[in-house]
Amino acid sequence: MADVYILGIESSCDETAAAVVRSGEQVVSSVVYSQILTHQPYGGVVPELASREHLRAIVPVVRKALQDAGKSYDDIDALAVTQGPGLAGALLVGLSYAKALAYALHKPLIAVNHLEGHVHAVLLEERQNANRELEFPVLALVVSGGHTHLFLAEREGHAWRYHDVGHTRDDAAGEAFDKVAKLLELGYPGGPIIDFLARHGHADAVKFPFAQIKHRDRNPQNRYGPEERRVDFSYSGIKTAVLRYVETHAMRSAIEQRARTLRQIVNPSREDVLAACERQTLDLVASFQRAMVQDLASKTLLAARENDAATLLVTGGVAANTELRATFERDASQQGLQVYFPSRMLSTDNAAMIATAAYPRFLMHDFAEPELSAEAALRLR
Ligand code: KG4
Ligand code: ZN
User: Fold this and answer.
1) How confident is the model at residue 44 (pLDDT cuts 50, 70, 90)?
2) Atom 11, ligand 1: which residue's CA is nearest?
3) 72 three-state secondary structure
4) Is the pLDDT of residue 212 over 80?
5) Cβ-contact 172, 143 below 8 angstroms
6) How far is CA 19 from each of CA 66, 94, 144, 356, rounded to the nearest angstrom?
7) Side-chain-facing half-sphere of 110: CA atoms under 13 Å
């Protein structure tokens, strides 16, 4: 079959991204403009600022993706864009731009669910490594700043179908990393810095109990019937538990001291943050990460057993976490399960995953209607 070049565009949260991917298997170019510096002072993504930054970045980012690929618009077979889920105003920037571009170029446009993008990031990586065979059913854990979701994926021809077998009832796992880092004045985003600091602390210093949420699905629409067991997550409690630990162990003054120290450094490095952390903070951070990772791994592996999954994919920003990767690899292999991760580059938000998820839809001529609109709460099915 002839090569198919898809230009992907992603703007669902705080990254403006564009990429050219060949036939869903080779990244030809991938440009990610991160807004981290814009949101850093607030310790989280500010939606209005995100939309403004996307507006500024979208044109140069798309141009650079084409330039890096050595392609012109003529060489592109289709455009793909994230329709949702995400921040409404942020999604709208990428979507409006992609629609206008597709219309002007007379090229088809493919709407992609951001979560499906994260799943396909792993497939893309495996295809690039010449591994084409995945055993189905596939269980995918999508774990990021906005989502903690378990999907059971099946394939019929080119079409992918997803069943939600568990998700977070409140905060996403990445959100918990970000909130705990903010509480302890470690900087933003919290995940990468906690990942680094945790290596310097004792993970068994503090115990965090988790609610074991498991129940039978009462949704009569569920094709697996009401007997299907769901495994859900909940991460708002651990943030409160960390706060309580801080209060009961008189850590406030150390936290304020760290904030003052780091404020005097322009763009503090992770070593600067480490130097500003006393033992108690490092132990707390290591214990927090251990608790998060164990909860994610044990519930995912439970869902894998209950749904007879043959393959496990772990993807999304939090999938970049070192301890999470090691734990999943160890525990999955004990269960005789293959586990795949995307590289760190493809773990966090990017547009290569959007162009990849669009490829099977391209083959099915599943193109977007002109009235396509952004959907902040778009579900994956
Ligand atoms: O997928 P992503 O780039 O954006 C969303 O769709 O949310 O994920 C960003 C999230 C942030 O919460 C960030 O703290 C977390 O992923 N993250 C990590 C790591 N790297 C990024 N969490 C834990 N460990 C990491 N190494
Ligand atoms: Zn994401």
Assistant:
1) confident
2) 145
3) coil
4) no
5) yes
6) 8, 13, 20, 10
7) 28
Q: Residue 209 pLDDT more than 80?
A: no
pLDDT above 50: residue 226: no
Which among 193, 318, 327, 350 is the best mutation to test ligand 1's pocket, defined by most ligand atoms within 8 Å of the CB?
318
- Indicate if ligand 1 lies below 6 Å from the C-beta of 174: yes
Rounded CA-CA distance 358/112 in Å is: 6
Q: How far is the CA of 172 from the centre of ligand 1 (A)?
A: 10
- Choose which residue among 11, 118, 144 to substitute to test ligand 1 binding: the one with the highest number of ligand atoms within 8 A of its C-beta: 144
Query: Domain for residue 369, yes or no?
Result: no
Nearest CA residue ID for atom 18, ligand 1: 191
Cβ 348 under 6 angstroms from ligand 1:
yes
Say if residue 203 is in the same domain as residue 297: yes
- Give me the CATH number covering residue 352: 3.30.420.40
CA 214 – CA 196 distance, rounded (Å): 32
Query: Are 294 and 157 contained in the same domain?
Result: yes
With the most atoms of ligand 1 within 8 angstroms of its CB, the residue from 348, 353, 380 to mutate is 348
Write down the pLDDT at residue 225.
Answer: 45
Number of domains in the chain: 2
Atom 13 in ligand 1: which residue has the minimum CA distance? 191
- Same domain for 268 and 159, yes or no, is yes
281 lines ligand 1 (CB under 6 A): no
pLDDT at 224 over 60: no
Structural domain span for residue 144: 136-220+229-342
Specify whether 89 is located in the same domain as 151.
no
Cβ–ligand 1 distance for 320 under 6 Å, the answer yes
Would you list the DSSP string of 235-253?
-HHHHHHHHHHHHHTT-HH
